[in-house]
Design brief:
about 325 residues; mainly beta; Rossmann fold; Porin; 2 domains; eight-stranded antiparallel barrel; five-stranded mixed beta sheet; about 10% helix; rod-shaped
Length: about 325
């Protein structure tokens, strides 16, 4: 092993466009020196190694490229760390890689030997070191990103539902997704169903209006760049208004409803920041009011199904 005096290094960090949230030089220095429990980084006059870290954003990936060389520029090794997550997912792996490189650096790459048989009149050619192969390490998507901020996305979708109202009813749904750091993603949703009628006979019946708000937890099941699948479990609170028509005395009733929901959610990025989102699920109403007509020809008009089915398709945009 080299003497400790030979293991001091000069560090430079370059953060390109889109990589501004990555570690800066001061943060990386502290992280490496905490691991090695000694001073590592100094100025040019006292160093024998030169370390350059450059962060580059490419589409859905971030790369941290580590280049190690002797202080005179002789290359000693290149490493590359890549993540599809937030840049802080690189923090621990980057600090460890840098610590290992400066603590036990690879040997310098020897220049190509000069052919002694070459004629003396042959012009001298510049001597170049053999380039080092780059080693690329991909950081798994489930590695925590400790400095990742909360994210939010807003979406609008068309919805079809069966069981909550008579027949299959369309609705428009507005959703706000919140992605907290180190917690399960949340989905807040509001929806308005197209009014529907249920007839008692050709001249009378009831008209149904339904508004709902919901909250769901949507843990990720699978994720790849630009695509994801989630399982959502939550609850819906509904405000149902029922108005009679065509009776001698038309009445109006309003009821609160409560349902438990579960389903699968898929997302596909079209272009930043817009994605298409789909959902397919079911729900179990815990309140199932029965609506009937009164009088001589009394009849059941509607009662919610014990199990409902829902489907959605729409667009959403990442807010930040």
């Amino acid at each position: 092993m080299l003497a400790e005096a030979a293991l001091l290094a000069v560090l430079s960090v370059d953060r390109g466009p889109g990589a501004e949230a990555c570690l800066d030089a001061a943060q990386l220095k502290r992280s490496v020196e905490r691991r090695l429990k000694r001073r590592v980084f100094v100025g040019d006059a006292d160093a024998s190694l030169r370390l350059r870290v450059s962060f580059t954003a490419r589409r859905s990936e971030l790369e941290a490229r580590i280049e190690l060389s002797s202080i005179d520029g002789t290359p000693r090794g290149v490493r590359s760390l890549v993540t599809s997550s937030h840049c802080s997912a690189l923090d621990d792996s980057l600090a460890l890689s840098v610590a290992l490189l400066v603590d036990e650096p690879p040997d310098p790459i020897e220049p190509a030997p000069v052919d002694a048989r070459a004629p003396a009149t042959t012009p001298a050619q510049p001597v170049k070191a053999t380039p080092t192969a780059k080693t690329t390490i991909t950081i798994p998507a489930d590695v925590p990103a400790p400095r990742e901020p909360w994210h939010a996305r807003f979406g609008v979708s068309g919805k079809a539902a069966w069981g909550m109202l008579p027949g299959v009813r369309p609705a428009v749904a507005f959703g706000l997704g919140i992605l907290p750091h180190a917690f399960v993603p949340l989905l807040l949703q509001g929806e308005a169903f197209w009014p529907t009628n249920t007839a008692r006979d050709s001249t009378s019946g009831a008209r149904f209006h339904l508004l709902r708000v919901g909250l769901a937890l949507c843990p990720m099941l699978w994720q790849a760049p630009g695509r994801s699948l989630s399982f959502c479990a939550g609850q819906q609170l509904g405000w149902l208004t029922v108005e009679g028509y065509g009776f001698d005395h038309d009445s109006k009733q309003q009821r609160l409803g409560y349902s438990l929901t579960a389903g699968g959610e898929g997302r596909l990025r079209l272009f930043p920041p817009v994605s298409v989102r789909g959902y397919l699920g079911g729900e179990v109403p815990l309140v199932r009011d029965r609506f009937t007509s009164a009088g001589r020809d009394a009849s059941d008009l509607f009662r919610a199904s014990p199990i409902g089915l829902t489907g959605e398709i729409g667009l959403e945009a990442a807010l930040w």
